[in-house]
């Protein structure tokens, strides 16, 4: 007996998905029990075309993956925060507003 499997594929690009993914991720961040994968610093020039280092708060990994990237000044204060959504050779980001809860959370984690 054969079983038919119906997979729904989402062929939208990361640029088409990133805004909704950020809205959904913000809900996760409101949950005090939510645990992300990791928090680390990515040195400048780790990736091609990446002249600036950033603090990475990684939420998921693989395809797709998503993370916040916090760019700081010499006083370790955030000056830009980006939410990135990445999926197998494709990626897109949105800027996070300074009054978003995630901005405060990220600044506290950076210390």
Topology:
Blueprint: H1 14-29, E1 38-42, E2 54-60, E3 65-72, E4 78-87, E5 90-95, H2 101-110
Antiparallel strand pairs: 1-2, 2-3, 3-4, 4-5
Describe the model.
The chain is α+β, with helices and mostly antiparallel strands and 111 residues long. The protein contains two helices and five strands, in the order H-E-E-E-E-E-H. The chain has a five-stranded antiparallel beta sheet. Strand 4 and strand 5 form a beta hairpin. The longest helix is centred in the first third of the chain and has 16 residues. The protein is globular, with a radius of gyration of 16 Å. The protein starts with 13 loop residues before the first helix and ends with a helix. The relative contact order is 0.19.
Structural features:
5-stranded antiparallel sheet; globular; 111 residues; alpha+beta; single chain
- Following the backbone from N to C, one meets helices and strands in this order, namely HEEEEEH
Head-to-tail CA distance between termini? 59 Å
Query: What are the segments in which pLDDT stays under 50 over at least 5 consecutive residues?
Result: none
Structural class: alpha+beta
- The global form is globular
């Amino acid at each position: 007996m054969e079983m038919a499997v119906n997979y729904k594929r989402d062929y939208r690009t990361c640029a088409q998905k990133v805004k909704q993914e950020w809205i959904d991720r913000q809900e996760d961040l409101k949950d005090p029990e939510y645990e992300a994968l990791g928090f680390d610093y990515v040195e400048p020039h780790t990736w091609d075309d990446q002249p600036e280092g950033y603090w990475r708060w990684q939420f998921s990994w693989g395809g797709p993956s998503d993370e916040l990237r916090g760019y700081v000044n010499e006083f370790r204060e955030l000056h830009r925060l980006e939410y990135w959504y990445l999926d197998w050779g494709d990626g897109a980001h949105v800027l996070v507003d300074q009054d978003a809860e995630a901005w405060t959370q990220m600044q506290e984690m950076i210390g």
